[in-house]
Amino acid sequence: MPNPLEKINDRVSNLRTRLGGVDLRQNAIFIALLVLIAFFAITSPNHASITPDNWSNLVVQNGYILVLAIGMVMVIIAGHIDLSVGSVACFIGAAAGILACRPLEQTGWAWLPKIPWAVALIGAVLIGGIVGMWQGFWIAYVGIPAFIVTLAGMLLFRGLALVLLQSSNIGPFPDSFRLIGNGFVDKANILGHNFGMKNYNAAALVITAVGVVALLLQSFAM
């Protein structure tokens, strides 16, 4: 009669053979993510964690983190670290809000002309570029470690954000400005109705399919 331990060893060996070309260390985070998704899908009432509304809320609420992560990846690949990313995002957001809303109820902004919100976004991007060049100058040309420069930047730009906002909220923001973060592509599902897909957002499916194809082509090109 075969030993149960031998059966287990054989199965483990077969699994290792099948996964021979897979780097588990590199892909462990994806496996853990799939396990977490499956766990919460099973335990949440009516499988609420995998509903389209929940996925949409996750993307809307964490979209800015994805944008920041793209820049952080480049910094980390270069062997540096950026401790000021949160404070810089706060400072640039405050600048964008000042430019887009022109809060005349706060003292000191009477000189600022009223500009369209699209121009305000461009101005905020330019300010962000100047902030990046400022910190990059001290790191690349002066030779100060990125840890020290960005630690100082974390305190500096958080304070500048409070100075810009004068420790108060501003608003209201233009509706078109708010749609950037809270709007939906083809919310009325016009494309879906035209192709008989009333229960699915056809525009979102097309964008997702294009993104998946682009990632596949990129992986093959590498």
Low-confidence stretches: none
Oligomer: single chain
How many distinct helices? 9
Task: Give helix and strand order, one letter per element, not per position.
Answer: HHHHHHHHH
Classify the beta-strand content into a percent band: under 5%
Tell how many strands the DSSP assignment holds. 0
User: Largest beta sheet, briefly?
Assistant: none
Distance between the termini: 50 Å
What percent of residues adopt helix (DSSP H or I)?
A: over 70%
Mean of residue pLDDT? 81
Structural class: mainly alpha
The radius of gyration over CA amounts to 24 Å
Name the overall outline: extended
Could you outline the blueprint of secondary structure elements for this entry?
Layout: H1 4-18, H2 24-43, H3 52-77, H4 85-101, H5 117-142, H6 146-165, H7 175-182, H8 190-194, H9 202-221
Helix pairs in contact: 4-5, 4-6, 5-6
Description:
Helices cover 71% and strands 0% of the residues. By secondary structure, it is mostly helical. The longest helix is centred in the N-terminal third of the chain and has 26 residues. The chain is extended, with a radius of gyration of 24 Å.
Structural key phrases:
222 residues, mainly alpha
Give a summary of the structure in a few sentences.
With 222 residues, this protein is mainly α. The protein has helices at 4-18, 24-43, 52-77, 85-101, 117-142, 146-165, 175-182, 190-194, 202-221.
